[in-house]
């Protein structure tokens, strides 16, 4: 399983189509949030998303970002990732089901993506046996930089 930007344009187009079919008009805030999420490799907080949009010259209020994120989560287009460290994080849910998991650093709070094929196979077996339809693994430990220090 690859970690990274997998199908950015496809996800953005998919998100726009799902929202349009549900009767939601395409507003500037929604367009900006969808575009920003489609270019992310890993989850981020609403504040990090706000800061990223501001740095790119887009002025979208934090309240608007939260409304868009709530809508995207409601429509199963974005996954809300609770890392247990402050604010919730959000990332695009790929239509293909391709995904990664997260390691939260106990020292600095950084969140890193990881993938493991053997783990995915084992989880898939449990999902089939238990009738589950989705999963997310969150590991706690030390990030790459903190381990090196």
The succession of helices and strands, N to C, reads: HHHHEEEEHEH
Write the CATH homologous superfamily.
Winged helix-like DNA-binding domain superfamily/Winged helix DNA-binding domain
Sheet with most strands: 3 strands, mixed
Shape: globular
**Span between N and C termini?**
28 Å
Number of domains: 1
Strand content: 5-15%
Question: Quick summary of this structure?
Answer:
With 149 residues, the chain is of the alpha+beta class. The protein has helices spanning 8-21, 28-38, 46-55, 62-74, 117-130, 144-148; strands at 78-81, 89-92, 101-105, 111-114, 138-141. The chain has one domain (8-148): Winged helix-like DNA-binding domain superfamily/Winged helix DNA-binding domain (Arc Repressor Mutant, subunit A), CATH 1.10.10.
Describe this protein's structure:
This protein has six helices and five strands, in the order ααααββββαβα. It is an alpha+beta fold and 149 residues long. The chain has a single domain (8-148), classed as Arc Repressor Mutant, subunit A. Strands 4-3-5 form a three-stranded mixed beta sheet, with no helix packed on it. It is globular and about 40 Å long.
